[in-house]
Amino acid sequence: MYHAQQTTAPRNDASLEASDDYDDLGDASRYCPTELLGTFTLLMAGQGRRVSSDMMLSDREYAMWQLARAHSMADDQLRSIAVRLFSCFDDPRGWGASLQA
Fold first, then answer.
1. pLDDT digits over 3-26, tens only?
2. Residue 64 class from Cβ within 10 Å (0-12 exposed, 13-18 middle, 19+ buried)?
3. Model confidence over 46-58: pLDDT tens digits?
4. Which entry of 23, 58, 68, 79 is 20 to 30 Å from 87 by CA?
């Protein structure tokens, strides 16, 4: 025969919103447009430079290095995209915050 056990664990009436537990993260609305990142990696490949999109999104130092490399190349379209992507990675506190969630 099955007997239901009643638990006496204390009830936690705290908010279910996980965000209640965190301080202001600053501008968490920053994101990296994946289409722009894809164009960047293809243009870099056209210059003979392999770039990992995953590494760009997970390692800020790697991303900044690749953007600096692109900016030094003689391809105006690549340089323009590197400048636009730089704004996604320029804040060491908030870079990719929306992607890390």
1. 555 555 555 555 555 544 444 444
2. middle
3. 999 999 999 998 8
4. 23
